Amino acid sequence: MRNRLRRLRQNPVIRKMVRENSVDTDDLIYPVFVADGENIRNPVNSMPGIFQYSLDRLSEIMDRVKALKIPAVLLFGIPLTKDECGSSSTGDHSIVYRAVSFIRQNYPDITIIADVCLCEYTSHGHCGLISGNRILNDETLPYLASMAVTAARAGAHIVAPSDMMDGRVGFIRDSLDREGFKDVMIMSYSAKFASSYYGPFRDAAGSAPKFGDRKSYQMDPANGREAIREIASDIEEGADFIMVKPALAYLDLVKEARERFLLPVVTYNVSGEYSMVKAAAQAGYIDEKRIVMENLISMKRAGADLIITYHALDVAEWLSESDN
After folding, report:
1. InterPro entries under this entry (predicted)?
2. Which of 11, 114, 265, 321 could pair with 151 in a Cys bridge, judged by C-beta atoms 3.0 to 4.6 Å apart?
């Protein structure tokens, strides 16, 4: 027998030598929830190990991010007040502005990505302005652009529009350029699906819609070709990174995006994916470390350059232990 593929698997040294993909700390982006108020460290019950932090306690989590050498955080703001147009998302007094400013000043080596979406700030919980039960597209774009400019002014390196309004990448790019923020990058949630995996996030961000659902603007999970059209459109409008969200059920699209486009590909290992692993691990059904690392390596194998994941702190610790 000439072809014995097991020859390349016979010991750990050989297996490591021929390994095609790896997960490194530099691949990781850690989501952080920042709540307006004081002395807040609220656990997210549906996401074990995840908390909301007020600005005066934000250093508790940022110190861990820094110590573990995680290169970037993705910020989500939780305001004190909400209204129909999400007005608390913009301006120097917004929680996002203050959180970005704090991190930029105190953790200058960490890349700051600011989520751009109205759902955390609107009283109705939708990602855009509404008229009756209809979510308005074009009327929402100036609000998203204002939010992006607010984050850029505070010092964000990257803004990440997650709303899925048509044309928002180009509108934000033009607004950033006009305000002098030509070097601020856009990480677009290009193919974001109307997924059932987002439930725990909506607990963490307080962003569940008060009526209807998001199927009129987020993508149908049944559609793949449409995802490629969305990505191509965002690239044409000026995106610097493209994202597929969620991750595990959509790895076919991560792979296709990697094969078709030259931009960095990001995938979001979302809250439901995280919480299912945590729940199964706590019940003793699975080996958490091995499952998490297998999930993340599948994302890298599919073609993801970067992974947004709530597992980032654990993964960085595991990788650090393996290096010692």
Report:
1. ALAD, ALAD_AS, Aldolase_TIM
2. 114
DSSP calls for 6-58: GGGGSSHHHHHHT------GGGEEEEEEEESSSS-EEE-TTSTT-EEEEGGGH
Q: Which of 209, 195, 215 is nearest to 122 (CA)?
A: 209
- Sequence ranges of the binding site for Mg(2+): 230
Q: What is the pLDDT of residues 86-96, one digit of tens each?
A: 999 999 999 99
| Exposure string over 218-247, b if 16+ CB within 10 A, otherwise e | bbebeeeeebbebbebbbebbbbbbbbbbb
Cα separation, 27 vs 12, in Å, equals: 23
Pick the CATH number of 21-323 from 3.90.550.10, 3.20.20.70, 3.30.70.120, 3.30.420.40: 3.20.20.70
192 included as an active-site residue = yes
Distance of alpha carbon 180 from alpha carbon 184, whole angstroms = 9
Say which of 192, 215, 255, 289 is annotated catalytic.
192
| Burial class for 294, CB neighbours closer than 10 Å (0-12, 13-18, 19+) | exposed
Contact 95, 79 (CB under 8 A): yes
Residues in CB range of 176: below 8 A, 6 or more apart: 145, 148, 149, 152, 159, 182, 184, 186
Task: Give 142-166 pLDDT, tens digit per residue.
Answer: 999 999 999 999 999 999 999 999 9
Residues tagged in the binding site annotation: 117, 119, 127, 202, 214, 230, 271, 310
**pTM for this prediction:** 0.95
> Are the C-beta atoms of 95 and 121 separated by less than 8 Å?
no
Out of 245, 255, 289, 300, the active site residue is: 245
Strands 130-131 and 134-135: antiparallel
Q: Omega of the bond prior to 108 within 30 degrees of 0, cis?
A: no
- What are the tens digits of pLDDT across the range 48-58? 999 999 999 99
